[in-house]
Amino acid sequence: MSTPRETVVLPIRATVDQTYQLVPCFDRIARGDARIVEVPRGAFFGPIGVAMIAAAAAIRIQAALKPAELRLAEGDEETRRFVREVGLASWFGTTEAPRREGTLAVRQMTTLEPLYTEGVADLLAQQVAGTSEELSHLIQLCLNELLQNTFEHARSKVGAVVHCRWYANSGNLRIAVVDAGIGIPAALRIASKRGKIKFNQLQRLDDAVLIVDAVTKTGFTSREGPRAGGLGLKHLHEIATSRGGRLVALSLGAKVEFQSRGPMRRRTPYFRGTAVELDFRAKRETQ
Hints:
Layout: E1 7-9, E2 13-14, H1 23-31, E3 36-39, E4 44-45, H2 47-62, E5 69-72, H3 77-86, E6 103-109, H4 114-127, H5 133-154, E7 160-167, E8 172-179, H6 184-193, H7 207-216, H8 232-242, E9 246-259, E10 262-281
């Protein structure tokens, strides 16, 4: 049986490795083409997937379009519990309150809120054994930097959509920030045209190369003006990978996963924005 045109069926998995599967769904939800968003039985989405779905709903709301209906399989209480837990239901016209178990409800932000990011870091430190005070402080700095990057560079009309989840058994914390802005490669190309970045043939480099440069090269930024930047993506990448974690960035036509052994690149459907996920290993000693 074919799926009606007004229905978008989400992938059954949208963890960090499968995020590219969400891009066509993101576009249809955001544009308003879809009246129904169908969640398959047993579906599970990682922080980056949850934030992408919520960001698409936020774009729709910003455009004053009617919220789509989130439809789950009848009797699928496990998926219903997950959707309620991560706070997705509220983005699709329901008033069901989220339940905090291993996650914080997905949230939209348009300005940096230090009290919120401090609260996130403190809560994650309480939930995952091995999260030291130093690491808790680093988590707050990293979240602040991801948000500040969005507010300064992305030109996102919906700001940033944030989702955090902790995994007590494996001892890791994952934070995803998604926007609907111009994308990392586009921001760097614009900066190059203005003379901010002086690299030959920058306009000819593909999206994956530019994402790698933004994350691994010192001073490779689209930040305006003479003032110094914050931690920068390079430092965020080093903090995560030094503890056995990773940084994943999906923007425009590419997704790059940064681990200690180096970046892994993948071409993807065109994503109108940037999605970044940081994975911190609380129990891992810094290398």
